[in-house]
Design brief:
Number of strands: 0
Distance between the termini: 37 Å
Strand content: under 5%
Largest sheet: none
Order of helices and strands: HHHHH
Radius of gyration: 19 Å
Mean pLDDT: 83
Shape: extended
Length: 148
């Protein structure tokens, strides 16, 4: 039973879409909408853009490490003869790579938050909560399938 749970958890991790992690984030309409909603000054916009450029190489390295670790895990999972002793280190490596990416994103977020006023930080938190709510609704809709 424990190995079945382990396999299900591993398959779930391996099935996470990589498309959401590909490439650097681009400046675009969404970024501009957020800047407008937060009433960012031109100086804040320039500072945030500089921070993103500074962190971009590190984030790309981490994203690539995640992709490689997850691909190695997926490949091993497809081999029915692969023992758990071989899968566990691959899973641990993928989890560690994802955690490193999470920490790198967190560092960028903390530096970005430091550039905002207290009012802008509150508004940003409100926008994040709204976006997370929308994502939950979309995921719920995907799980339920089409309503035909």
């Amino acid at each position: 039973m424990k190995s079945l749970l382990w396999t299900a958890l591993t398959l779930t991790l391996a099935a996470l879409p990589l498309g959401a992690q590909a490439g650097p984030r681009r400046e675009g309409p969404r970024t501009e909408r957020i800047a407008q909603a937060l009433h960012l000054t031109d100086a804040q916009k320039a500072s945030i853009k500089a921070l993103r450029q500074k962190h971009q190489p590190e984030l790309l390295r981490h994203r690539e490490a995640v992709q490689q670790a997850q691909q190695a895990l997926r490949t091993a999972l497809q081999d029915a003869a692969a023992p758990e002793a071989q899968l566990r280190p691959l899973y641990d490596k993928a989890a560690a790579a994802r955690f490193d990416l999470l920490l790198a994103r967190r560092a960028l977020q903390k530096e970005t938050q430091a550039l905002l006023t207290p009012e802008q930080r509150l508004k940003a938190a409100e926008l994040r909560g709204f976006a997370q709510g929308q994502l939950r609704e979309r995921l719920r809709g995907l799980r339920q399938g089409p309503t035909n």
